[in-house]
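re the bet — no i am not wrong, look at it urself. input seq straight from the record:
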Amino acid sequence: MQDCQPVSTPLVAKSTLTAAQSPSTPTKIEEYKVYANGLNYLEIVGAILYVTQTRPDIQYAIGVLAQFGSNPGKPHLEALKRVMRYLKGTAHFKLRLGGNDTSNTDLVGWTDSDWAQDLDTRRSVSSFTFEIAGGHISWSSKKQPTVAHSTVEAEYMAASHATREAIWLRTLLEDLGYPQVNASVIHADNQGCIALSRNPVAHSRAKHIDIRHHFIRERIANSEIDLQYCTTHDMIADIFTKPLARDAFTKFRAALGVGEF
């Protein structure tokens, strides 16, 4: 891959990777599991996972590819090679911590999900990213533990995931001498999710949701968290939920603070 042709995104926009693309015969399994001078598929994935500590722009791509480590097929190998081609062209990129207004230490977050993204299990992907003083310090892209019945439910579960992280970060910042006086704003792009988080009345859309996700209502009532609407066009966490087209990917990558500095 030293002389590979760089690409502008880690995954092809709207591409899908499934277990059905994995080989079914033992010979093919061994053929695809080990390649590149004997280097194991999972070894490559593990090495790139280490890079995600400072490169959130590849968090989603490598998280998806890691799911096929026990039985990768040719499409998974090609996608992994594309990630390496992307890193080849952006090896000089860095993660910027701190922006123009470093005096503002209010914690701000973005949360998003992509409903039924996994075609094998129909589970959705939860994502969040948090910023303080102009720099993003925490991010996540994770498959949800259960199947969501609707977009609202998927977004609500993602918001719950983000709220748990926000509470932990607020405690950490207080220990470091930066107490969060105001409620931490978390941006979401689903009005139904925001309404559900503020409405304590149970109804047909919410009565089946696991009680562990409803604690977000208590945090909002205690003025620790404030869910606010933002458009999908401005949803930074979208980069953690699906393969994006070049323009959208580049925009959100810059918003995360990844680039040439």
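see?? The helical segments are 26-33, 41-51, 59-66, 74-89, 151-175, 191-198, 215-221, 246-255. told u. also The domain at 108-259 is CATH 3.30.420.10 (Nucleotidyltransferase; domain 5). so pay up
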